[in-house]
């Protein structure tokens, strides 16, 4: 059985670990300097940082459970703007990750549908995200939802920048 739940502050430890593992699975192969990767994971997915993000009213986290086991999550950031997205009424799909062994089961599609529906319910007119340019699996995933490239950013890990296209979708 698959369940999708909105995370609460009490989920911070599980989300920190899930975030760390799924980020390493999806991006670890692209990052040459593993010391930089570990430092990034330690900072971005610390229990303290995760709890802080969960307590921020502009963040909504969804967790996917398969047979009560957490297998993925998404983070929607409300009222998030960026220069290349013309809307001032936008939100950001900052993270959507499923553990590798469950990706083929297509739970990411259900999770993405849930996040987009929530953005629409909250009356946002645009949702945007960034994705690593070499992560073609993720880019194809978002293209199925009619996200279109509107800009670029450099995502820093250590001293190295990684090119990320900004994709946007009108709601």
Helix/strand-derived class? Answer: alpha+beta
> What's the Cα radius of gyration?
15 Å
- Low-confidence blocks of residues: none
Biggest sheet layout: 7 strands, mixed
- For the record, the CATH class is Alpha Beta
Task: List the main descriptive attributes of the protein structure presented here.
7-stranded mixed β-sheet; 171 residues; single chain; Aminopeptidase; 5 helices; alpha+beta
Structure description:
- The chain is of the alpha+beta class.
- Helix content is 35%, strand content 33%.
- It has helices at residues 12-27, 34-44, 47-55, 107-121, 136-143, and strands spanning 2-6, 59-66, 69-77, 90-98, 126-130, 148-157, 160-170.
- β4 (90-98), α4 and β5 (126-130) form a beta-alpha-beta unit.
- The longest helix is centred in the N-terminal third of the chain and has 16 residues, at 12-27.
Give a summary of the structure in a few sentences:
This protein has 171 residues and is of the alpha+beta class. It is built from 5 helices and 7 strands, in the order βαααβββαβαββ. It has a single domain, classed as Aminopeptidase, CATH 3.40.630.
Task: Outline the secondary-structure elements.
Layout: E1 2-6, H1 12-27, H2 34-44, H3 47-55, E2 59-66, E3 69-77, E4 90-98, H4 107-121, E5 126-130, H5 136-143, E6 148-157, E7 160-170
Parallel strand pairs: 4-5
Antiparallel strand pairs: 1-2, 2-3, 3-4, 5-7, 6-7
Helix pairs in contact: 1-3
């Amino acid at each position: 059985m698959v369940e999708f739940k909105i995370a609460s502050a009490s989920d911070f430890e599980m989300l920190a670990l899930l975030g760390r593992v799924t980020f390493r699975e999806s991006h670890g192969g692209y990052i040459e300097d593993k010391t930089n990767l570990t430092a990034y994971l330690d900072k971005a997915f610390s229990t303290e940082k995760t709890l802080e993000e969960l307590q921020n009213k502009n963040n909504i986290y969804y967790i996917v459970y398969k047979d009560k086991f957490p297998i993925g999550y998404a983070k929607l950031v409300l009222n998030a703007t960026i220069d290349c997205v013309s809307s001032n009424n936008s939100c950001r799909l900052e993270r959507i990750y499923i553990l590798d062994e469950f990706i083929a089961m297509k739970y990411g599609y259900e999770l993405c549908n849930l996040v987009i529906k929530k953005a629409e319910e909250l009356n946002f007119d645009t949702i945007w995200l960034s994705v690593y340019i070499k992560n073609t699996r993720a880019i194809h995933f978002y293209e199925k939802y009619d996200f279109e490239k509107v800009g670029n950013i450099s995502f820093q890990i250590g001293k190295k920048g990684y090119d990320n296209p900004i994709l946007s979708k009108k709601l």
